[in-house]
Amino acid sequence: MAVDDLGVLLMELAPRDRVELAYQLLDSVDPELIDEYDKEVEAEWAAEIKRRVDEIRDGTAVTYDIEDVLAAMRARYGGEDDDDGMAGDPAVDTVGAAEIKRRLDEYDAGLVEAIPAEDVFDRARTLVRELARKHEPDETREAP
User: Cα dist. 96→25, 31, 91, 99 in Å?
Assistant: First the structure.
């Protein structure tokens, strides 16, 4: 059975069972192999990030104004009146944009060799989880 076919079959398991299986599978693999794979993925992401930064610098990238992106996100995932009190908050939007600009300025000035991909991944994972929690049915939400 091909891995893709097995994956489709395993997606029928309950989420908790998939988590347990994932841990069992990770435990069955040599940690050095996992480290090697992680380094390969990290190198691929570093190359992709460099490619995108180079496109921005040389003017070949398609870019979007941050205000347009934020407006589209608000329109898709909720407006100014979201119950978390953050969506559409200009202070929050400004802080996020300022942090991105600060990191790019440090990179451009040669103060850092690269923007750590793990920082980007952690922030993206957090945002995706927050969005998922906001859009899941009430009965599946955990109590705070």
Answer: 37, 35, 9, 5
Which pair of structure tokens corresponds to residue 56? 């921005």
Integer CA distances (angstroms), 122 to 12, 116, 126, in order: 27, 10, 6
Over the chain (144 residues), what is each successive 10-residue block's mean pLDDT?
87 89 90 90 90 88 80 68 48 60 72 66 66 60 49
CA-closest candidate to residue 115, choices 56, 35, 71: 56
Query: With contact defined as beta carbons under 8 Å apart, do 115 and 103 qualify?
Result: yes
Distance CA(102)–CA(83), nearest Å, equals 29
* Cα 142 off chain centre by: 22
Gap between the Cα atoms of 87 and 110, Å rounded: 33
Tokens of 41: 């993925």
* Burial letters 96-107, b for 16+ CB under 10 A, else e: eeeeeeebeeee
pTM of the model: 0.40
Helices (H) and strands (E) in the chain, counts: 6, 0
